[in-house]
Specification:
The protein has 177 residues and is α/β, with parallel strands linked by helices. The protein has a single domain, classed as Mannitol-specific EII, Chain A (3-Layer(aba) Sandwich). The chain has six helices and seven strands. The chain is globular and about 35 Å long. The two termini are 27 Å apart.
């Protein structure tokens, strides 16, 4: 398993990206990229994500993150299809959007809308009152993952810096493969 964590930075969610697009690279810098992650169930994966993110967020408890992710899943699966899940939630006391991208070693049942197992997971947490940013980020990520070529590149890439670059190029509008 390969794990990449850059130092925590707190840039604004929006940089000089096109049309006020979210800075996915900065979001990943605060959370990380994990290649070859192994887990046994959807619930266990959400626990692991909560623990990963809590390690990066000293003022946020892993149990709070886990509860938030589970509560959102109880509303309906965040498995968006094509082997992708976008677990997400809002957290009181969080200052910046944080996310972690996981490439699972073995595909996992996630109750996705297309009933296919998931092997790409991008989990995000947003500040409690960041409704617009939350929706914009989810829309941007869904757009990236809907693109067959970009999704395939994310599946095949094992280098965290290339994964980050794929997201950056996609958001900047330069990622037309």
């Amino acid at each position: 398993m390969s794990v990449s964590h850059a130092s925590i930075r707190h840039p604004a969610m929006h940089g000089n990206k096109q049309d006020d697009a979210p800075d996915i690279g900065a979001i990943l810098d605060r959370g990380g990229i994990v290649i070859g992650h192994q887990t046994t169930s959807k619930k266990r994966l959400l626990e692991q994500i909560a623990n990963m993110l809590a390690e990066r967020l000293p003022n946020i408890d892993a149990r709070q993150i886990f509860r938030t992710l589970i509560e959102r899943e109880n509303l309906g699966s965040t498995g968006i299809g094509n082997g992708v899940a976008l677990p997400h939630g809002r957290i009181a006391g969080l200052e910046d959007v944080v996310g972690v991208f996981l490439h699972l070693k073995n595909a996992l049942d996630f109750d996705a809308v297309d009933h296919l197992p998931v092997n790409l997971v991008f989990a995000i947490l947003v500040p409690e009152n960041a409704t617009e940013e939350h929706l914009n980020l989810l829309a941007s990520l869904a757009g990236i993952f809907r693109n067959d070529e970009k999704r395939q590149k994310l599946l095949e890439t094992t280098d965290p810096s290339l994964i980050r670059e794929t997201f950056d190029l996609s958001v900047n509008g330069e990622g037309h493969y």
